[in-house]
Design a protein that fits this description.
This protein has about 90 residues and is α+β, with helices and mostly antiparallel strands. The chain has helices at about 35-45, 50-55, 70-85, and strands at about 1-5, 15-20, 25-30. Strands 1-2-3 form a 3-stranded antiparallel sheet.
Length: about 90
């Protein structure tokens, strides 16, 4: 399973790491940010369809920033899925 590393923008988290295998998300981890909430996101999305999770989290906003750690995870997943196609 390939591990992806994404640097989020405009949020407290500084790094998102995750794997995708057979279209499913695994080992989602955030560096910095709201630790309890971000660990919970990782648990909730474990083994879930990556494209579905990206769609579900897209557009989630944190404090009027126009994005959030969840939205940034959505962007990271979409980039990874696009990379897997090529």
């Amino acid at each position: 399973m390939k591990e992806y590393v994404y640097t989020p923008k405009y949020v407290c988290s500084r790094e998102i790491r995750f794997g995708i295998e057979d279209g499913k998300l695994h080992n989602v981890r955030f560096k910095s940010g709201c630790e309890g909430n971000l660990k919970a996101i990782g648990k909730l999305v474990e083994g879930q369809d990556a494209a579905r999770i990206a769609e579900m989290l897209e557009g989630n906003d944190c404090q009027g920033r126009g994005t959030s750690c969840a939205d940034q995870l959505s962007k990271a997943i979409r980039e990874a899925l696009e990379e897997e196609k090529n």
